[in-house]
Automatic annotation (TrEMBL):
It is an enzyme of class 2 (transferase). It comes from Pygocentrus nattereri. The keyword Isomerase does not apply. The lineage of its organism: Eukaryota, Metazoa, Chordata, Craniata, Vertebrata. GO terms for molecular function: protein C-terminal leucine carboxyl O-methyltransferase activity. The keyword S-adenosyl-L-methionine applies. Methylates the carboxyl group of the C-terminal leucine residue of protein phosphatase 2A catalytic subunits to form alpha-leucine ester residues. GO terms for cellular component: cytosol. This is Leucine carboxyl methyltransferase 1. The gene is LCMT1. It catalyses: [phosphatase 2A protein]-C-terminal L-leucine + S-adenosyl-L-methionine = [phosphatase 2A protein]-C-terminal L-leucine methyl ester + S-adenosyl-L-homocysteine.
Amino acid sequence: MASHAPFTDSDTADEAVRATCDDASTCKRFATSKGYWSDPYIQYFVRQTGERKAPEINRGYYARVQGVNHLLDAFLQKTQCDCQVVNLGAGLDTSFWRLKAENTLPKKYFEVDFPMIVARKIHHIKAKSQLSKPLIETHSSDSLLLDGHSLDSDRYCIIGADLRDISSLEEKLRKFQINTELPTLFVSECVLVYMNPEQSYRLVHWAADTFHTAMFINYEQVNMADRFGQIMIENLQRRQCNLAGVDVCQSLDSQKERFLSTGWESVNALDMMTVYSLLPQDDMSRIERLEFLDEKELLQQLLQHYSICWAVKDALSLGISQIGF
């Protein structure tokens, strides 16, 4: 899933944030080419570049993808796919095609992102039958509703919108038949950190307020107050990329507080080093044989500065609050 944020197409900062979509997609493409996990669809969105990625980066993306998928799949299982998924800042993510291939699609899968990124994604889907055919197969008519900045079918919808403008976001989701009564999973990966705290609080509060049975998975930076965190911030600033929401990324407690203070019933958070240690051991042994890792300390530092936080509201008592690692 791409790591970038929901801004308008105006200034340099927004441009730098949009560029992180390509960074994340390129890293995933490289890691899958090395065999970390299988994603037969990413090749249709991202060309393989000659640029190598360090083993700790590949393992970091492996942990991120496996961690988020673990929670996503658990939600689909608990709801028996009688639910919907909303991927906020989805970028060039391929989860819809994975779920279609595994026959575990929710009732409807929504993606929201910058209009510019959405237009690119729609272009790829229209141009490649490997991407468009699965949409047609789950659609009751031959024609998909398409324009430059949105695509709608029975089971999959992409919307170009600014996540800071809640009323416009809600209006667009309702236009494409989002059902607020259905259990709903929100996913955001390195998205909220590019919004200021007030904007991200508004977004997660809207989600809790509007959907009675819901879960929110948020992957992003944590423990940013130490020296390693400062270096990460400085590296991004050199690329004109400002982490406007970094105050919420000080600790796992500050990450959880965002959800607890906006109407979510329960919330858990783990740093990615912990998630990495909880992933299935046989697969961990497999991926650790793929590449020699010279500096285990660097991997550890990197993973300690990212986290997965998941918040739940379970009005229908489906047991989604039991989901975890």
